[in-house]
Design goal:
Number of helices: 7
Radius of gyration: 29 Å
Shape: rod-shaped
Largest sheet: none
Structural class: mainly alpha
């Protein structure tokens, strides 16, 4: 490859600088977005201090990680613009535009991927807590279905002719539907299921725990 003369760059040299700056910009934008946007979406409001009054170390580390990601990116991006610009202002301007284009493209792709990730049912806010509560209710329900002794003691829990039991069955179906369907209010469905379970148990004569 011909050496750079400081006056003119070869096509191959321009291509290498272009690839370098686009990759550096894209990786930097991705790293920063992952540290800011994704963390905000998943964590919500994070307390500055824990119950003992100590500083939240995760919150302290995150700005440091973002800073070093930006710094590392600039270490590559700035020379990738300045060096070609010293050889040819036009090429330096081209590198600048390529960097801006790569940043916009990386940001756009990152947003689309994040929306796709958040659209998955298991990534909805409050899903983990609702799923744990849902599983606990299912375990309560299965005791009446799988334990012959409880089935004999409380036959009403299996009798869908009883309005409360029929409502419980519908609540079970709705909660399961919301669990696997994006765009539904799963925590609310589990809350209604819990209330339906309590009403069905009361109607069947089950003593409150």
């Amino acid at each position: 490859m011909p050496a750079t003369t400081g006056v003119q760059l070869t096509v191959w040299e321009i291509a290498l600088w272009a690839i370098l700056i686009m990759c550096a910009v894209a990786l930097t934008v991705h790293a920063v977005s992952k540290g800011v946007v994704q963390r905000s979406a998943e964590s919500g409001h994070v307390p500055l201090r824990d119950p003992l009054g100590h500083r939240n170390r995760d919150l302290v580390k995150e700005p440091d990680a973002i800073f070093w990601n930006v710094f590392a990116g600039l270490v590559v991006i700035v020379p990738a613009i300045v060096i070609p610009a010293l050889a040819s202002p036009a090429v330096g301007l081209l590198m600048l535009f390529l960097g801006i284009g790569a940043a916009l493209a990386a940001f756009s792709v990152g947003r689309k991927l994040e929306r796709k990730r958040q659209s998955k049912p298991e990534n909805r806010a409050g899903f983990a807590d609702a799923a744990a509560r849902h599983d606990a209710i299912l375990a309560r329900w299965q005791k009446y279905e799988l334990d012959p002794a409880r089935g004999i003691d409380f036959p009403g829990m299996s009798d869908v002719n009883i309005p409360q039991t029929a409502a419980l069955v519908r609540a079970l179906q709705e909660a399961q539907r919301c669990r696997i369907t994006a765009g539904t209010d799963y925590p609310r469905a589990v809350e209604l299921l819990d209330a339906a379970m309590a009403e069905a148990e009361a109607a069947a004569g089950v003593s409150a725990p």
